[in-house]
Amino acid sequence: MKKLLTCTIIALLALLAFSVNVNAAEVTTEAELKSALEGTDETITIQDDFEITKTLETNRNVTIDLNGHQIIGPDDGISNWYAFVVKDGIFTLKDTSATQTGELYAKCYGIETKGGTFIMESGKIIATKNG
Q1: pLDDT in tens, 20-74
Q2: Are 104 and 93 in contact (CB under 8 A)?
Q3: Where are the alpha helices (DSSP H) in the chain?
Q4: Is the dihedral of CA 117, 82, 114, 126 positive or negative?
Q5: Where does the chain show beta strands of DSSP type E?
Q6: Which of 40, 38, 41, 39 is nearest to 25 (CA)?
Q7: Tens digits of per-residue pLDDT, 65-83?
């Protein structure tokens, strides 16, 4: 009976270990990031530096892990553009890299909330407001 209980507990622990971050995406481009924001992924990990050309919107709970990389936000040179707009849900930005060099470099503004919540866990936002 003890062996059966021990085996069952080990099996459950192994199952839990493999179920962590099942809803996670790794992205290297603006198109992949946009798709991940529209999907069901809870955590989006950036795998390379890249630029986004249009404001990306989300209305759900999602975490972006900069992972030591840089996302460059959009700017049309005329109006004020945000890199991200949070319409609903909780948008978390963090950098889990050892170097802590991850950043959102916004040519205009970084993140706007419209009914949602923004949480900055780690990393950096540089917003230049066209200057």
Answers
A1: 545 899 999 999 999 999 999 899 999 999 999 999 999 999 999 999 999 999 9
A2: yes
A3: 2-19, 30-38
A4: positive
A5: 24-27, 43-46, 50-51, 56-58, 62-65, 70-72, 82-86, 90-94, 103-106, 109-113, 117-120, 124-127
A6: 41
A7: 999 999 999 987 766 689 9
CA distance 122 to 65: 9
Instruction: Return d(Cα 92, Cα 97) in angstroms, integer.
Output: 16
Task: Name 56's Cβ contacts closer than 8 Å, sequence gap at least 6.
Answer: 30, 33, 34, 37, 83, 84, 85
Kindly state the DSSP code that residue 81 receives in the 8-state scheme. Answer: -
Residue 83 DSSP one-character state: E
